[in-house]
């Protein structure tokens, strides 16, 4: 693959069903690798995705490689504090390993230059995500949530067994 041009576009409301299906497909890989099978229904559930996409300040973005849809993200932008969150981030199945995720993250940072702090979460078993956020994107792990230390502000999806996960933070300035 040559040096692809990665850009972002606001997700078209007519595209949201494909956006959700592609995200669920990407997330299913890690869940099946960890648990051997998917619980009933897709992960995250359609309801969880709708809640995230429609939350106050949320922006659903399409990740494009040379104009072709290869993934997406949902960010929540706080225009007052500039403490923003990366709520969902995915590349379509088959698009990993080409540097697109890192380029997409850099495009998100460039799109929101007023950001003071970015935060995101990932389940404990997603080693690929942990590597990506810490080693590629410069986030720091600031909390590990589990049964003895639950995250009351960001409960995990109820459709996964267990509730362990990491909170990452990246201070921009």
Proportion in β-strands: 25-35%
For CATH, the homologous superfamily is named as Gcn5-related N-acetyltransferase (GNAT)
CATH class: Alpha Beta
Provide the succession of SSEs. EHHEEEHEHEE
- How would you classify the helix and strand content by structural class? alpha+beta
Low-confidence runs of at least 5 consecutive residues = none
Note the overall shape: globular
Query: What do the pLDDT scores average to?
Result: 88
Q: Give the N-terminus to C-terminus distance in angstroms.
A: 34 Å
- Strand order, biggest sheet? 1-2-3-4-5-7-6
CATH topology: Aminopeptidase
Helix % is 25-40%
> How many β strands by DSSP?
7
Detailed description of the structure:
- This protein is α+β, with helices and mostly antiparallel strands and 173 residues long.
- It has one domain (6-171): Aminopeptidase (3-Layer(aba) Sandwich).
- 29% of the residues lie in helices and 29% in strands.
- The chain has helices spanning 16-35, 46-53, 100-111, 127-136, and strands spanning 6-10, 58-65, 68-76, 83-91, 117-123, 140-145, 165-171.
- The chain has a seven-stranded mixed sheet, sandwiched between helices.
- The radius of gyration is 15 Å and the shape is globular.
Could you provide a short overview of the structure?
The protein is α+β, with helices and mostly antiparallel strands. It is built from 4 helices and 7 strands.
Task: Supply the key terms.
Aminopeptidase, 7-stranded mixed beta sheet, 173 residues, alpha+beta, 29% helix, globular
Set out the fold topology.
Elements: E1 6-10, H1 16-35, H2 46-53, E2 58-65, E3 68-76, E4 83-91, H3 100-111, E5 117-123, H4 127-136, E6 140-145, E7 165-171
Parallel strand pairs: 4-5
Antiparallel strand pairs: 1-2, 2-3, 3-4, 5-7, 6-7
């Amino acid at each position: 693959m040559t040096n692809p041009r990665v850009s972002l576009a606001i997700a078209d409301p007519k595209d949201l069903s494909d956006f959700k299906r592609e995200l669920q497909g990407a997330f299913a890989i890690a869940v099946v690798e960890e648990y051997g099978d998917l619980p009933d229904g897709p992960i995250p559930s359609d309801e969880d995705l709708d809640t995230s996409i429609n939350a106050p300040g949320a922006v659903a973005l399409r990740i494009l490689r040379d104009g072709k849809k290869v993934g997406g993200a949902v960010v929540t932008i706080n225009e007052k504090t500039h403490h923003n969150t990366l709520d969902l981030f995915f590349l379509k199945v088959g698009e990993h390993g080409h540097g697109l995720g890192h380029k997409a993250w850099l495009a998100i940072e460039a799109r929101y230059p007023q950001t003071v702090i970015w935060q995101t979460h990932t389940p404990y078993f997603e080693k690929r995500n942990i590597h990506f956020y810490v080693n590629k994107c410069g986030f720091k792990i600031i909390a590990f949530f589990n049964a003895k230390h639950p995250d009351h502000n960001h409960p995990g999806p109820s459709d996964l067994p267990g509730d362990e996960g990491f909170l990452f933070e990246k201070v921009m300035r």
